[in-house]
Specification:
- The protein is α/β, with parallel strands linked by helices.
- It is 25% helix and 28% strand.
- The strands form 5 sheets. Strands 6, 9, 10, 11, 12, 13, 14, 17 and 18 form a 9-stranded parallel β-sheet that branches. Strands 1, 2, 3, 4, 5, 21, 22 and 23 form an 8-stranded mixed β-sheet that branches.
């Protein structure tokens, strides 16, 4: 049994208050205000640090010198999850690209992902996010259009249960049919890398879509038809429909602080989940802040692109210090909201009895000093 006392607890539905949290056997057993009346087991003094539920990242390709897509076995995958947990990220959804159908290679690769998903302690593998490849050429990362075969997608998700999310452009041929297949098999169909019209988005929602991938990136806004009538693009439609939660890369580079504030003004913390979308295979997500977001020139389209590498605690700093988002609201977008979207709201994303003992403690500069994942201590600078 372990107790963390003298903490400033950040509970999105209650705000920030002085209190303590106690856990045992991987589960939270008590959360209280003020000082505990009785103390049993190990006691950690938080010294006034902010304490919240562990952070959840639903879109991450790699970092700390690794690429999730290149993990060769369960041990490498667990190491990658552990490295993320050093920053208080106690649950990660690795993101892969290019998986179109079931092959022997795909089945072999994801066999150890399915194994790690069964782990009961430590950082949690939340499932796999397939970002594409079913996008129109103009918005596909490689510039090549891929058309889904709904039957092949059905075979894939039935054989690989760790696949829990797919980003898809709903307007491509077979796009809506594929969304139905995904949602019918418990795989979230997130809209992105596309330019659908209003009717298509409404139909995607009717078929179960509830998410939009990295708002403003890989999508279009208002456009004119042949008669010069303006229509909403995916950006505006994401704002319009309350059913859609939006993924936000809140690093201050993809979107500046005013735009981040606008997204919060319209969608609110219940409609936003913040992600790293990190591609930084050879760059640590900690340390040199000048490396957090690298600007790269693309000869393909003649534009600058940002290569994100900013960890979630630093994104919290951007949201709170630069975009002036209330702390409890910012924390909700990396805890309770993603937990709800993952259908894990009964055990993750909150400091509450019966929930997983996923705990992050950080200072005024958003530097993580304590990280606990399902009761397992990852880092502790408070001893």
């Amino acid at each position: 049994m372990t107790m963390l006392k003298n903490a400033r607890l950040v509970c999105p539905d209650k705000g920030v208050f002085s209190g303590f949290v106690e856990w045992d056997k991987g589960k939270i057993i008590h959360v209280g205000e003020g000082e505990p009346e009785a103390v049993q087991g190990e006691v950690i003094d938080a010294g006034g640090l902010f304490v919240s539920a562990g952070f959840l990242d639903m879109h991450m390709h790699g970092g700390f010198g690794f690429d999730f897509g290149s993990c060769k076995d369960a041990d490498e995958l667990r190491e990658a999850l552990w490295l993320n947990a050093l920053d208080g990220v106690t649950g990660v959804m690795p993101t892969h690209s290019g998986v179109e159908r079931l092959t022997d290679e795909v089945a072999e690769k994801y066999a150890f992902y399915n194994e790690v998903m069964k782990d009961e302690t430590g950082p949690e593998l939340l499932g796999v996010h397939l970002e594409g490849p079913f996008f129109p050429a103009e918005l596909a990362p490689g510039g090549i259009e891929k058309i889904p075969d709904p039957t092949a997608v059905k075979e894939l998700v039935e054989a690989v249960p760790c696949i829990k999310r797919m980003t898809i452009a709903p307007e491509i041929p077979n796009g809506l049919e594929t969304i139905s297949v995904l949602e019918d098999h418990g795989v979230t169909a997130s809209l992105g890398h596309g330019a659908p019209d209003s009717r298509t988005v409404r139909e995607a929602i009717a078929r179960g879509s509830r998410q939009v991938t990295h708002l403003y990136s890989g999508m279009k806004g208002v456009y004119r038809d042949a008669e010069s009538v303006r229509h909403p693009g995916l950006i505006e439609l994401a704002y319009l429909y309350d059913e859609l939660a939006v993924e936000l890369i809140a690093n201050g580079k993809h979107l500046d602080s005013d735009l981040i504030r606008l997204v919060f003004r319209i969608k609110g913390p219940d409609g936003i989940f913040v992600v790293t979308d990190s591609h930084a295979r050879d760059i640590s997500l900690r340390g040199d802040k000048t490396q957090y977001v690298l600007k790269k020139w693309s000869e393909a389209d003649g534009k600058y692109h940002f290569n994100p590498a900013m960890p979630i605690p630093e994104m919290l700093r951007v949201m709170v210090k630069e975009a002036q988002i209330p702390l409890a609201d910012a924390v909700k977008t990396v805890t309770a909201t993603p937990a709800r979207l993952l259908h894990m709201e009964n055990r993750k994303g909150k400091l509450a009895p019966g929930y997983d003992a996923d705990i992050a403690a950080w200072d005024e500069d958003f530097q993580v000093k304590l990280s606990v994942a399902r009761g397992k201590e990852i880092v502790n600078q408070l001893k």
